Amino acid sequence: MAEVLPYGRQSVDESDVAAVTAVLRGDWLTTGPAVERFEADLAAWTGAPAVAVTSGTAALHVAYAAAGVGQGDEVVCSPMTFVATAACAALRGARVVFADVEDETLTLDPAAVATTARTRVVAAVDYAGHPADYDALRRVQGDALLLADAAHSVGGTWRGRPVGSLADLTTFSFFPTKNLTTGEGGAVVSADPALLARARRFRNHGLVRDRAEQRFPDEGGWHQEVHEFGLNYRLPDVLCALGSSQLRRLPAFKARRAAVAERYRDGLADLPGLRLPTRRPEADPVWHLYAVRVLEGRRRALYDHLRAAGIGVQVNYIPAYWHPVFADLGYRRGLCPVAERFYAEQLSLPLFPDLVDADVDRVIAAVRAFFA
């Protein structure tokens, strides 16, 4: 049997290994200079200051905390996402209001967003790497903050502006299957100094070390205070060094992902049983997923066919409110028909920077054999 081909994986080379090794041989394993360097490197890509954290989920939790999301608030959220986008808002005590997605990009549909006096955040998701229409979302966000869950889209742009500069708060994930990796890790970026300060404080237990902000500043040089609860979401220097190294490789990652997506398009465009992903002219995405739509109810059959052939396809994602945890809170299927229709057809083909043309052609051949 042929080697199993994963749907996504990290790309680590000797420059990445050297960056991590240098930290291991130094004095700082965490809370040191590699963290500040990674945050500065990320800010150069995103156009806004960054706070490094331990995962994409931690980034969402930190962002909602920075936004002041709490009991009685509402958070409007796309359902076409990993469950963490909604779960982190619920964990803060908010009521999640799911709004449907656009059929073309599978990003939050501005026409479906309805805010109230309780809406604290509108959370968009850059599905598969395609940025949401943040200009249109700005027009409907009302008094709420706009959050971009950009776990799929670091390195992309919308109308020439980088992902990270499009919303009030942006969150990233650096899991191994993402566009760059720190092993586990994430980040929150924001151009708003107050939001950024709250994010930095929350990711470090809520500690206040600035004497000018302390209530008892004369206690002694050791003194630190907690004014609001936070958690330990600090990303260590070892992983931040890997992140900085990976950011230097991000242009090559982006170009290779685009080449793989184009090869899939050339090899599959004539199949009537598939609908291929598109992009809007305003977007320069990083192709994180190559999400095809399998028509006429054949998604499960194609999934099983490709898995049997050693091709690690995946489904991204079950609509978030279909998870039993949300069903138990009273959410019902049928809320977002566009998202649900897409879920019934969606299949992610393998896509990662180290995927060679021969592997892409193997996937294309296996898909074509299914429809033959």
TrEMBL record:
Matches recorded under Gene3D superfamilies: Aspartate Aminotransferase, domain 1, Type I PLP-dependent aspartate aminotransferase-like (Major domain)
Active-site residues annotated for this sequence: K178 (proton acceptor)
Pfam hit, one: DegT_DnrJ_EryC1
This protein's record includes keyword Nucleus: no
Name of the protein described by the UniProt record: UDP-4-amino-4, 6-dideoxy-N-acetyl-beta-L-altrosamine transaminase
Known cofactor(s): pyridoxal 5'-phosphate
InterPro entries, sorted: DegT/StrS_aminotransferase (IPR000653), PyrdxlP-dep_Trfase (IPR015424), PyrdxlP-dep_Trfase_major (IPR015421), PyrdxlP-dep_Trfase_small (IPR015422)
GO biological process: polysaccharide biosynthetic process
PTM-bearing positions, type N6-(pyridoxal phosphate)lysine: K178
Domain of life: Bacteria
Keywords (A to Z) from UniProt: Pyridoxal phosphate
Repeat keyword on record: no
GO molecular function, one term: pyridoxal phosphate binding
Family: Belongs to the DegT/DnrJ/EryC1 family.
